[in-house]
Amino acid sequence: MNRCKVCSTPVLQRKNRKKLGALSTICCIKKLVDLATQSGWDHEDARKFFAEGYVCLTCYRTVEKCSLLESLLIAKLSGRANDPSTLESSGTKRRATPTEHAAAVKVVVTQSGYKKTYTLSPSKEALGKSLGRNSSNAVMRHASHDQTLKRSMLRELCRMLRAEMKALLASPDFMMKDVSSLRNFSWNGLYYTMKEKAPTLVELLQSCIPQRSTRMKFVMVMCAAMLAGTHKRCTSVQSYVSIVLYLGHAAKQVYNRLQKLGICLSTFMTRRIIDQMGENHDQRVLDWVNSLKSTISTNQGPVARMQFGGLDNSFEYGSESDVPFPQPLEVTVSPCSDSSSQSDSSETNSLQCPNMSPLSMQLESPNGGELLCGSSPIPSHPLHSPLSERYSDECTLSGSEKSLTDQPSSETVSASEDDSDPTIGWCGFRIVGDNIDKTVRPRDMRHNHQSTSLHYFHSYAVKDRVDVSDLSPEVPLVTSKEIDVNLFLPSPEDCQSLEANFCTLMMRILVKHIPGISHLSSVVLQHIPHPYSVAMSKKSEVVPLGVLLKNENKLDDMMDILDGLHKYVPSIRTIQHFEDPEDTSGEPEVTDIEIDHFCQILIGGDQLTAARVRGSQSIRRNSDNGRMRLDAFIPVVEDWHTKMCFMQVLWSHLYKATSTLDVGTLYQLKILINRRNVSKDVKKDMNACEDFLELVTSSHVIAAALHSVGVSNSSDFLLNFSSSTLPSDQQAALESLVVSICSKFINISYPYRDYKDSSDHILKYTMEVMSLGLLYLEFKDAVREGDGFRVLRCWKFFFLLFRGTGHKNYCIEALQLLASYYYILPPRYAAQMLWGRFVNIHGKTGCNISADLHMEHLNRLCKDAISHLGANKTPSAISKVGKALGPLSEIITNFDAMTGTVVTKAHTRRSEEEDLNKLVTELVHNGNFHMQPGRFHQNFKSIESNQLISSINVNKFRDWMMQQLRIFLKEDHIW
Questions:
Q1: pLDDT, tens digit, 9 for 90 and up, residues 884-911
Q2: What is the biggest distance separating any 2 CA atoms in the chain, rounded to whole angstroms?
Q3: Which of 317-326, 462-471, 743-752 comes out lowest in average pLDDT?
Q4: How confident is the model at residue 9 (pLDDT cuts 50, 70, 90)?
Q5: How big, in percent rounded to 5, are the helix, strand and coil portions of the chain?
Q6: Which helix (H) or strand (E) covers residue 147, if one does?
Q7: CA atoms of 849 and 840, how far apart (whole Å)
Q8: b/e per residue, 533-567, with b = 16+ CB within 10 A?
Q9: DSSP letter (8 states) at residue 575
Q10: How many angstroms separate the CA atoms of 273 and 377, rounded?
Q11: How far apart are CA 609 and CA 455, in angstroms?
Q12: Residue 730 has pLDDT above 80, yes or no
């Protein structure tokens, strides 16, 4: 039983307070301690006296309310403290206080023969004993209990913190001097500076944060806020936070509110920093330019000669030198060696090939030779998935000519990539550009204040990931008789490789969507290899070049754009002295002529951009020098806009809004799964149309597999698929199944291959959807892997499809690309055009995108930044924003890395299984894959298998190609 410290009456525990009302409280004990201290007790003794005991409610109320009893109580407490017998007489037993038994603590001070003894007060006796025991922790604990010592300790601590803050203010790490300090910003650097300059402050703040993993960042933010309140220049952290808010498109009110708390800068200062970031935004590109200048030869200029109709006109390509080109052309190349080891052999391959690009030249060697652009060997068979070996037995080949797409098998690629060094010293690059269109609508529209439509040119440079420095930059010598237009068309080997890759794509679809064979996903090839798989898995180095205030739709502006981009062309100007040979005087007149030698740069974009570049070059082709003639630029059409055009071809051929009742047509399947965002115009919503096409293609593949196995649903697929349970046997059965599907339901061959079941037009429509859909997936997968060979093969088929559907502009671009690769471009630039078409922003395998698609992403970022300008959408402000995109991207990437922020850029996709099952069920129940003569869709009565390619008149097509080639070569100054 506990007793009251004052009257010794029994008191109850705290938990019974509400029932009996006789309970001690902390407030009561504190009150008694204060009163006892005022009456003469030592504070420590009084605290210890009441700390372990209880006080009854009656005594507490007496102390609280009655001043007379309060004084009596103090006297009573004082008496008990001085005379322990008074408590014992009342029957209360307590522990003796330290003052009752312990002797006084004395301190003897001896100094210079002088000795003096001090007696410590009761409140400091424990402190003296701790000092005697040399216990630091006990000394600090007892000193903190003494109010006087505690206040003195706090004053000393504050003095130390002020000194440390003064030292931090003198450190340049927290100062916002210029933009370079933001680029070199480091949380670790700031933390180590604080640990060195202000260890006490860091230790004090860290002790307040229990979680160790976040201590450093929180301490930095708190210190930055304190420093910003001390000095207006200490805003490095605030500047960093302001940039994060800027990229998040925070409103102006957010800046103004957070600035009051010392978290960020104002809107005005943030925009000022953004403007400063645009300075030297293209320094890396200029470094690449300086590196490429060493590859320019001023001793000899290549000359290309083309003969048409008996004409023999020479021109100088890439240089203004008048030195003739050696004939016949002999290109001497050597394979690229690993940077870490030298090649054991110093032999080189001397190839004579006047009319083919470097990669196709290598295929003409009898033993395969070595790859000219890298260290990977080239075997004699085309590159496709390993399934091609099994599939090749069922393919009928004609002709002995090797295809352009001869590439190594997966085993060869793996072996060569392990020995290759992905780090290259080649600094070649290409420029990609596109129009950026923005409409600025005023809030208050007036007759003189209307909406403004902005049309500017946005561009970036991307560094090559494939080293082509060993290839010749000199254009080969060709004649008209040596042009073979068959190189521009799909060869039998191309068709074989394409169909083999179709089989791989179908296997991926089946193991993904059919549960019974999902365990075979590990044996299906997920990444079709090529000679540069390792290089294409590396992250691309992209440098935004800013916004030029010109419109590419106008030729005058386009010429100004090219003049502005010419500073990124590696060039060397030399002066040659010429004497007049007809001058018979003793001192003939000497004429100095400036000659530009340059390394050409590929400039990519959509079809309009490429056409405008060629138009500008055509206008200036009579200028005095190569710079004014714009000879340094090689226009190239990119792949994403081409993919969009191909999808429009497919839509115009197979998509009709009147085919609602024709089961299995694209429009009927769209209505079935309610895809209202799919439009007849693909440009309105490219993503929706692309997603729908991929879903329809997958449903056709699954329905064809169910038809071939003889089941009507996926749950029964495994029962009839294979009688064996061994994974190897099931893998062989799966390969045989997709080969059978490909041979029965795929027809995209050239020359045209007809089928006997010519009267079943529903089956032919289904085959068209499946064939063109798989061609689309093949092109998309080739871009994803960064496979230039597969992309070029798809361009051959696109060439035919564009011709068959009347897409004249892209048909011409396809011919221009193929002719550039085989005839027009020098070997180095042909390889650059083939392998520099892709951008990998993640640095992972299979994460490449088209260069013009990345341009669209940058345009979106630039438009968002322009919208963030508010009413300050002036041309100057837009130009500064475009230049700052690159540095801003680097800063935010650095911020995410330092803070451990995981930014998931992958889009979250809803499950499509329900829609897919609906489509498969519709196709299976309607029997679209069953051959039934006489069937047809009402809106596609006369459709034929491979109709777009079979409708081409081959002879007229060849004549048209030769006519266009003459135009190309004339525009390129070859004819």
A1: 888 888 888 877 777 777 766 666 778 8
A2: 146
A3: 317-326
A4: low
A5: 55, 10, 35
A6: helix 147-169
A7: 6
A8: bbbbbbebbbbbbbbbbbbbeeeebbbbbbbbbbe
A9: E
A10: 51
A11: 13
A12: yes
Tell me the C-alpha distance between 739 and 392, whole Å.
10
> Which 3 state secondary structure label does DSSP give 304?
strand
Position 696 pLDDT exceeds 90: yes
Of the candidates 185, 182, 171, the one whose C-alpha atom is nearest the C-alpha of residue 272 is 182
Count of other CB atoms within 10 angstroms of residue 942: 8
User: Which parts of 441-585 are beta strand (E)?
Assistant: 452-463, 542-548, 571-579
Of the CA atoms within 13 Å of residue 676, those in its CB half-sphere come to 1
Burial of 525 (0-12, 13-18, 19+ CB in 10 A): middle
What is the residue type of 401? E
Distance (Å, whole) CA 506 – CA 700: 10
Q: Compute φ and ψ for 119, nearest 5 degrees.
A: -100, 120
Q: Which of 72-76, 284-288, 417-421, 516-520 has the lowest mean pLDDT?
A: 417-421
How many other CB atoms are there within 10 angstroms of residue 216's CB atom?
18
CA distance 596 to 619: 19
Q: How sure is the predictor about 46, in pLDDT bands with cuts at 50, 70 and 90?
A: low
Tell how far CA 338 is from the center of its chain.
Answer: 28
Q: Report the C-alpha gap between 586 and 152 in whole angstroms.
A: 103
Tell me if the bond preceding 476 is cis, omega within 30° of 0.
Answer: no
Confirm if 791 and 639 have CB atoms less than 8 A apart: yes
- Provide φ and ψ at 799, rounded to 5°: -55, -45
Determine which of 218-222, 502-506, 747-751, 900-904 has the lowest per-residue pLDDT on average. 900-904
User: Which amino acid appears at position 934 of this protein?
Assistant: G
Q: Which residue is it, tokens 């004579």?
A: 352
Nearest CA among 149, 54, 42, 148 for reference residue 97:
42
CA gap 105, 118 in Å, rounded = 9
pLDDT for res 348: 34
- Rounded to whole angstroms, the Cα distance separating 173 from 167 reads 12
Backbone φ/ψ region at 107: left (φ over 0), alpha (ψ -120 to 50), beta? beta
User: Do the Cβ atoms of 677 and 688 come closer than 8 Å?
Assistant: yes
Going by C-alpha positions, the residue among 617, 618, 609 that lies closest to residue 642 is: 609
CA angle 30, 32, 34 (to 5 degrees): 70
CA distance 561 to 544: 15
pLDDT tens string 732-779:
989 999 999 999 999 888 776 655 556 889 999 999 999 999 999 999
Are 781 and 479 within 8 A, CB to CB? no
Q: 802: which 2 tokens? A: 């564009």
Residues in the chain: 975
